[in-house]
Amino acid sequence: MTRMQARDQEALSSLFDRFRGVVFSLALRIVRDRAEAEEILTDVFLQAWRQAGGFDRSRGSVGAWLITLCRSRAIDRLRARGRRDTALDVLTRAGREGGEAPHAGGGPEGAADLVLKRRRIGAALEALSPEQRRAVELAYYEGLSHSEIAAALGEPLGTVKTRIRQGLLRLREKLAAQFQT
Amino acid sequence: MRCEELKDLVPLHVVGLLDRDEETKLREHLEGGCPRCVAELSATSAALAEMPYALPAEEPSPLAKARLMAAVGREAGAASPGASRRRTAISAVAAALAGALLAGGALERRHAAVMESLRSQITRQEQQLARQDQEMTALREEVRRAGETIRLVSTPGVVVVNLEGQGPGAGSAARIFWDRSQTSWQLYAANLQAPPPGRTYQLWLITGKRKISAGTFDPAAGPATGTVQVPPDAGPVVAAAVTDEPQGGSPQPTGSIHLLGKV
After folding, report:
1. CA angle, A94 then A98 then A104, to 5°
2. For B194-247, how does the pLDDT look when each residue is reduced to its tens digit (9 = 90+)?
């Protein structure tokens, strides 16, 4: 990032190679269109290049920063194009894809590092109840509002809020616990 | 709202699920710098940012990187026209394209098609460049000869010799421009047939005492040029002749005379 801040294009190139897989996977998961996901991918790295000077390491990792930029852009697009699926569609799809296993590593972010990350997040997500996990995923990947999630899950608003809050806390605890072991 | 209650809002805030009122209150609290809630926010955001690692791994097309680096190169070029930055951008684009070529099998078909069309476009342009190079070389040679002709014709004291077809060369004609001071000559022939197989044309300058070789030439190659030294003791040149001789020429004429003219 220091090199990026010094306008070193090679640094941007390395950063792209390291994080393109996860950023693209996230964009694709949200917008479900390869061409659009690629646009988001390049936009995210272009934004990172322009705003490298404002990046503050103390507030989080570069990867987390890129992922946050990507999610926000992808959700914006989803909302802007008004193509957001009905809550029912989302629910059906979420159910269908729920058990899908991530591909084995081999990504660009350092295969070993990536495998480790996958294993950690996989284990942490396992610790969530299916309801918590679904609520968190609907909020994170679909950008749905409270009431839409409530409708999708057929649960009262208060329950949905509780599920998301508890789900995220649990995710945090599990990830933190893995760091400590 | 108490700090404890606000802290509970943090998880919903990071996924963008707070209503406007709650959002404003939490923001004010965070901007106020509450260390506990700021830490809560950063830990929750970090955990959430791990989520995408659980997704099925997907790879973008190598062209995405090419587009990114080209965009960055354009920005850098606009900000400061430093050649090195452009080079970096161009080499990154080239690297991405090379990556695209190498990863051909894994590419979507349309990308493979794009690369294929780019490759054949490059080949066509290379062929066109090679043709233009050849044309350029030919034109340079033509210009050089034309310059030589102009120089010869405009030199005072240049001798013009008209040759007429003789024997096997009947029906042909030629004109020689001979610059005595520079010892160079140029010969323009008309209707002169190619020499018999295995033979070559040779130009001779003839004095009362000697026949002096001025060199061999090929009429098919356009205007012929050469140099000739007439020894001072050879006497005045009275005529010029073209004979056919074995390849490489002869010290003295041996073959038939094709062209002859008085000086």
Report:
1. 130
2. 999 999 999 999 998 899 999 999 988 878 888 898 888 888 899 999 999 999
- A165, pLDDT greater than 70: yes
Name every chain A residue with its beta carbon within 8 A of the beta carbon of B13. Answer: none
Integer Cα distance of B107 and B95 in angstroms: 16
Mutate to test the interface with B, among A19, A25, A164 (most CBs of B within 10 A): A25
**Residue B2, amino acid:** R
Residue with tokens 């020894």: B231
Tell me if B152 sits within 8 A of B184, measured CB to CB.
yes
The mean-pLDDT minimum among A143-152, B55-64, B95-104 falls in B95-104
Residues of chain B above pLDDT 70, percent: 87
Terminal Cα distance for chain A, rounded? 29
Question: What tokens appear for A132 in the block?
Answer: 């918590």
Map residue A144 onto helix, strand or coil. coil
**Do A64 and B71 count as a contact with CB atoms less than 8 A apart?**
no
Count, in order, helices (H) and strands (E) of chain A. 9, 0
Cβ within 8 Å of B, A 21-80: 21-26, 28-29, 34, 37-38, 41-42, 45-46, 49-50, 59-61, 63-64, 67-68, 70, 75
Alpha carbons B108 and B119: distance in angstroms, whole number: 17
Identify residue B234 by its one-letter amino acid code.
A
Q: How far apart are CA B239 and CA A59, in angstroms?
A: 100
Predicted local confidence at residue A113, as pLDDT:
78
- Strand partners for B173: B164, B190
Kindly state whether B155 is in contact with chain A, defined as any CB-CB distance less than 8 angstroms.
no
Q: Which residues pair with B245 in a beta bridge?
A: B200
The closest alpha carbon to B242, from B221, B209, B213, belongs to: B213
Distance from CA of B225 to the nearest CA of A (A): 59
Collect contacts of B113-118 with beta carbons under 8 A, ≥24 apart. B114/B63
Q: With cut-offs at 50, 70 and 90, classify the pLDDT of residue B83.
A: very low
User: CA triplet A28, A85, A80: central angle to 5 degrees?
Assistant: 70
Q: Do B68 and A171 touch (CB under 8 A)?
A: no
Q: pTM for the complete prediction?
A: 0.55
State the CB neighbour count (10 A cutoff) for residue B135. 10
B 64-83 residues with CB below 8 A of A?
64-65, 67-69, 71-73, 75-76
